[in-house]
From TrEMBL:
Taxonomy, superkingdom: Bacteria
The keyword Transmembrane appears for this protein: yes
Keyword Transmembrane: yes
UniProt entry keywords in alphabetical sequence: Membrane, Transmembrane, Transmembrane helix
Ranges annotated as spanning the membrane: 194-214, 226-246, 421-441
Protein name per Swiss-Prot or TrEMBL: Secreted protein
Amino acid sequence: MPGRVLAIAGGSVLALALLFGALSASFQDVNDGLKIIGHDAGPQVVATADLYFALSDMDTQVANVLLIGDEHGLGKGRQRALELYERRRSDAGRAVLQASALAGTDPAERRTVQAVLDGLGRYERLAARALLMDEQAGHPAGPPPQRVLEVYREATDLMRLELLPMAYNLTLESGTIVRRAHEERTAALRTGQVLVAAAGILALGGLVWLQVFLARRFRRVLNPALLVATAIAGMYALTGFTVLGGETDVLRQAKQEGFDSVLALARARAVGNSMHGDQSRYLLDPERADTYEQTYLDKSQSVLYAPSGNLGAYYRAVDEGVDAYPAATTRFLGLIGREAARSGPSGRQEAIIDVLRRYREFQRSDVLMRRASPREAVEQLVGPLTTRFEAYDAALVKLAGIHRATFDRAVRDGEERVDELWFLLPVAMVSTAVLIVAGVWPRLSEYR
């Protein structure tokens, strides 16, 4: 009889150990996933998207300085462009350092980061040379002298054809870290749920069996210690199973509704800035004006897609699409188009509407700039058009902030829920073991 009691009690303890072990391993998976997505790789991936923005804005500001020349009435615009260029140089340097940290020991990514650093140094030398030559030329607003333009062409080709594609690839490569972490941790949590459920059933079955066995053999109606141990095990099994299911949703929300949207909007902001640079380059280099007009259309389509074969048709499609929103969301594609097509809280929808309207105003300013005379086009660019672009960019930042708040809240809530159970897990393990011994020991002592 003592051997049978010990065997049932030992089996129950073993099942409880499996239960608490499965809970502990699953909680560790949750913490690792939230740490990678919320604190390590996630923010760093967004930083690589900021690298694209900083690089493209550097080239935009150089183009603006060359376009303004030494025009007295536009002197403030020239000084502001120079200040922005220096600021973006610092931003790009910080973003490259973060990208290097994210690359870790991956040889391919480290080579890409090194190539970006080398290319950035070459670009800065060409840009400095073009700015110095432009200052010495002292030309009015409009295209600079041919020798200045040739140096700038070399610089902007380096930026657009080498540096920006490498920066974009860094973002894509780094994003796989977050995607892989999300997939692996989600699979681990689902496996953990199965293990917790199976171990919980075994533990509860063993404790109930032990309770019934003692009641029949020793003619006891109830064993309070075993009853409390059973309640603790059942509560932890059920709570753990429920929390793990909730943590799967937390990881999904943090990844899809937070991180993915923040990254998409960061990319939309970077591409939009590059579009704004194409407007400057369109006026700066008449020989390549058609090329810059086409690249402007291509980038516009990537931000907010609308079926069209030329800019005129695109302007009309954007007007019609924004007027129809939110009743007709299926016509939207592109980086901000997909965000607009998602249903969400009213605050988010209001922010999306603001982004779409600001984007439409920016495109309407582009029409006026392209129809104006060369001198008036420069005034439009550094005046109303830039103002509307900045308003659109600010609306994008606001929308990204809403998604970032969703992202941070999901990560914080997930960590808090796991921390609460994790803190009590050792207490539950020790207390159940003590209660099982307290319930069995008096019965075994009868056989001394």
